[in-house]
């Protein structure tokens, strides 16, 4: 499990130190900007869309807290999530909610790209980001990482103009960070992946252990 770095530090990396949104063409790939660290308690996050799969009337609601740059999250989505989806989400037993955690600016950028496609494309883009995480999230060059994330967006059918609009939306970035802060505090999320199943928090686990918990609630 990836442990969460302190929220204030996460914000400094993601926003407060500048360089959090992107530009294209002859401009630097990562534009420099100075943004005040948002106070989650003062931000209106009601417009942030919950990304949900499954039947709204399912007997079980399961929230996954994950970071797009967390290796354990990528492993969960490669090895466990397909079984969870087939056995519980697609069969109407689980309503699945995906909530992003931001360790760093790269995870925030990836989230902004995934959300750029709306509910319809979010989970498909998330799958692409998780499967290729080792290829785009382990570098040291923000320009290369930004380009790799944009490429994933294009693979999902997003146009360059839409990608740039999403990545340069400063207000949305600050709102997402505040939304993450509020959710993490409410559900006492201290690492990723974490799961809240019908109100009870669990850390990362095997599919067998997860299946036992879910079956016990049905």
UniProtKB/TrEMBL annotation:
Organism, as annotated: Cognatishimia maritima
Residue ranges occupied by any Thioredoxin domain in the UniProt entry: 31-218
Keyword tRNA-binding appears in the UniProt entry: no
Family, similarity comment: Belongs to the thioredoxin family. DsbA subfamily.
Protein name as it appears in the record: Protein-disulfide isomerase
Record field: transmembrane: none
Superkingdom classification of source: Bacteria
InterPro entries, alphabetized: Thioredoxin-like_fold, Thioredoxin-like_sf, Thioredoxin_domain
């Amino acid at each position: 499990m990836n442990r969460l770095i302190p929220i204030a530090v996460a914000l400094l990396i993601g926003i407060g130190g500048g360089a959090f949104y992107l530009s294209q063409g002859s401009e630097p790939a990562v534009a420099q900007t100075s943004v005040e660290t948002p106070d989650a308690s003062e931000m209106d996050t009601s417009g942030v869309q919950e990304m949900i799969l499954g039947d709204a009337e399912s007997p079980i609601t399961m929230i996954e807290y994950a970071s797009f740059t967390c290796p354990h999250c990528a492993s969960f989505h490669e090895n466990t999530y397909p079984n969870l989806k087939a056995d519980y989400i697609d069969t109407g037993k689980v309503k699945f909610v995906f909530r992003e955690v931001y360790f760093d600016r790269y995870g925030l950028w990836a989230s902004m790209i995934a959300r750029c496609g709306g509910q319809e494309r979010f989970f498909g883009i998330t799958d692409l980001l998780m499967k290729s995480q080792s290829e785009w999230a382990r570098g040291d060059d923000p320009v290369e990482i930004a380009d790799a994330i944009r490429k994933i967006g294009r693979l999902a059918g997003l146009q360059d103009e839409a990608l740039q609009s999403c990545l340069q939306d400063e207000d949305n970035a600050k709102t997402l960070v505040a939304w993450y802060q509020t959710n993490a505090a409410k559900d006492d999320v201290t690492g990723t992946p974490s799961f809240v199943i019908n109100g009870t928090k669990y850390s990362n686990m095997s599919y067998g252990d997860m299946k036992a918990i879910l079956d016990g609630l049905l």
